[in-house]
Amino acid sequence: MEFVPFVSLTEMKPMTEMKDMDTQKYAVNVDSASFLDIFRGLVDNVVETNEQVDRDMIDVMLGNIDNLAEVQANIEKANMAVELLVTVKNEVISSYNSIINMQI
Fold first, then answer.
1. Which domain holds residue 38?
2. Domain total of the chain
3. In this structure, are residues 45 and 26 in contact, taking their beta carbons and an 8 Å threshold?
């Protein structure tokens, strides 16, 4: 049985540097921001990263993406955004329950 490579070595492209995240887009002045502003920013981040992953998956299926490392990085960004949102939500609920159960 002869091994036939999926992609020949001459067709492979070198790895490129990852794009910087737009940190200014998600920057919040904590001194003047309410919790609602911060939480809304977290939700917006989750929505945007998931939309990017959806666009990447469509491009992969259509064969429009050659850089799978970028797709994987976007998937990890989306996973981290969701994990952060869930962690913050759980801590808020825990704090709320602690305040409700306080003796006056």
1. 32-100
2. 1
3. yes
Does residue 14 fall inside a structural domain? no
Amino acid at 76: E
Give ∠ CA 17-56-81 in degrees, rounded to 5. 80
Q: Output DSSP code: residue 7.
A: S
What global pTM score does this model have? 0.64
Rounded to whole angstroms, the Cα distance separating 27 from 101 reads 34
Are the C-beta atoms of residues 28 and 37 closer than 8 Å to each other?
yes
Amino acid symbol at 1: M
What pLDDT digit, counting tens, does each position of 39-97 carry? 899 999 999 999 999 999 999 999 888 888 999 999 999 999 999 999 999 999 999 99
- Long-range CB pairs of 21-25 (<8 Å, 24+ gap) are 21/77
